[in-house]
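Something for you to look into today, if you have time. Could you write out one complete protein record for me, on any chain you like? Leave the record below and I will have a look.
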Amino acid sequence: MADYKAGTGTDRNSAGSLVIRSLQKGYGHEEVSEAGFSARYVKKKESRFLLYREKVEGEPDRMVRILLKDKELILRKSLPGSPDAFTLMCFQEGAGKECRFFTPAGVMKMESRTRRIIRTEGEDFLKIRMDYSLYMQGELVSDYRLTIRWTEDGGQG
């Protein structure tokens, strides 16, 4: 591990494993998905990021950056070399936030309404659980429970 010591505020840049699990409820059914990635956890001053590449079959890799704040999370997916080809999802506990989804058919705008963000952090792991809903033009599209878990390579977390 880099020169990080728990509780000291020291900068950190560590490799690890990331698992993202989503439970989606909407239109009378539930769907669970889970994906794993190699990811970096970066801490500089008060900013915390998870960085990874998302591979989609038949498409270029997407670069993903998750910015973590106290009761806020901002996820940005972008295609390298395409400045307008990005998805931006913003979540703030107790608030509604505009989101932008890049699709092959163009940009789609939605609103996220986040009920809860719970973050647990240890020396070699980070876990976030979010409960939120997505709305399009004021109409509920789906409810979600998202769990993000990063574990440092070699960690016990």
Strands lie at 12-26, 29-44, 47-54, 62-68, 72-78, 86-92, 96-103, 106-121, 125-136, 139-152. The two ends are 14 Å apart (CA to CA). The longest strand covers residues 29-44.
